[in-house]
Design a protein that fits this description.
Length: 356
């Protein structure tokens, strides 16, 4: 007998862990459970887990709070240890796609596959008899993945799927906005990194990451205004929620960092357009923002004027209902940006059936 086993989605970010449970069907979906807890500063640096015990402790606390011990969990992974590559393989009988992918993957990643975890997804074909099939390879360094596995197991969970966070964000986007024919940039700005993914006609084309994010503002405020980390973080967040209270020095730091991040996004877009995938894609029509730092005062308008494309905040609850008792709709603007990746990862679990 096949039955949907209850799965939870975990996004371990460098500033906090987000856990969600998405239930329902693709057309009638809701977030049934939600938790977000901050990590001690410095426990994850540039996507690398430095203090595994501290991260495990926070996850354990969340799991106890949700009563989710023993459940299967899917995790989203990102950072420099995770790579995405698109390849084309000849369209022969399905059974041989796997063989072709295996032989092309090592060459594509320029790494020994024994050092990597790797998976692939078929990106759709023009028609059944098309001569070639596009395949997205997802590879991650074994040591990076093993760290995540040990944290999830250490918190008393079983491992379900793993997904590159750029794919989770693309799934969140499609679940809420449908399939757009135009080229769309999905820009996630977290605490420590910026990720720009490109989707067109429901296909994920490319993604790139840069090591900048919300921490950049906080660090500059600490240095220039001689503030402690918590105070600097509060000043930054207060600026976006109550712009009238901002001082000229804080305004200067935020403006300068906004410009820097917007220029990085412009560079990612230029790089994409110079790649083979970008050459074939249409012009960029929209940019959607996710990630906590995307809420920084005026960052959306600075990005829009830098890349000259309309910029919107992606709402992960545009079509997904919220039934979690501890999440109020008024929190969407405040927390929605941070939880987008976990929501997208949770969508994937709807189809995940296990034999019982
Ligand atoms: N209203 C706000 N204004 C400005 N910055 C904000 C706001 N809310 C959250 N942030 C910032 O967003 C960041 C956290 O976002 P998020 O949870 O998406 O990052 P993360 O997943 O922990 O990090 P990463 O994905 O880079 O590892 C922090 O730097 C936080 O200060
Ligand atoms: Mg994140």
């Amino acid at each position: 007998m096949f039955k949907t086993k209850k799965l939870i989605a975990i996004d371990i970010g460098s500033s906090s862990i987000k856990v969600v449970e998405i239930v329902g069907h693709p057309n009638n979906t809701s977030m049934k459970n939600f938790a977000l807890d901050l990590l001690p500063e410095g426990s994850i640096v540039n996507g690398i887990i430095v203090d595994g015990a501290a991260v495990t402790q926070v996850l354990k606390r969340i799991i106890a709070q949700l009563g989710a011990k023993g459940r299967r969990a899917s995790i989203s992974v990102s950072g420099s240890g995770v790579m995405l590559k698109k390849i084309s393989v000849s369209n022969v009988a399905n059974a041989t796609i796997n063989d072709q992918v295996q032989s092309q993957a090592a060459e594509s990643f320029q790494l020994d596959l024994a050092e990597m975890y790797f998976d692939y997804v078929e990106m759709g074909r023009e028609h059944e008899q098309a001569e070639s099939v596009d395949v997205l390879l997802v590879g991650a360094r074994r040591e990076v993945i093993e760290q995540y596995i040990s944290i999830v197991k250490g918190a008393g969970l079983e491992i379900g799927a793993m997904e590159a966070s750029a794919i989770s964000v693309a799934n969140m986007f499609e679940a809420n906005y449908g399939t757009m024919n135009d080229l769309v940039a999905l820009v996630s700005i977290g605490a420590s990194h910026l990720q720009v993914g490109f989707v067109e006609r429901g296909r994920f084309l490319f993604s790139q990451e840069m090591p900048v994010g919300g921490d950049q503002y906080t660090n500059l405020i600490m240095q220039s205004m001689n503030a402690k980390r918590d105070a600097a973080e509060q000043m930054k967040i207060l600026a976006s929620t109550n712009p009238a209270a901002i001082t000229p020095e804080l305004q200067r730091i935020i403006d300068e960092t906004n410009t820097l991040i917007a220029n990085d996004i412009r560079q990612c877009i230029a790089f994409f357009h110079s790649s083979p995938e970008g050459n074939e894609a249409g012009p960029l029509k929209y940019c959607f923002l996710t990630g906590g730092a995307s809420r920084t005062l005026h960052l959306d308008s600075v990005i829009a004027s830098t890349i000259r494309v309309p910029v919107h905040f992606a709402n992960p609850f545009q079509r997904i209902q919220i039934t979690a008792k501890n999440f109020q709709t008024e929190q969407i603007a405040e927390i929605g940006a941070m939880v987008s990746c976990a929501v997208g990862l949770g969508m994937r679990l709807l189809d995940d059936k296990v034999a019982v």
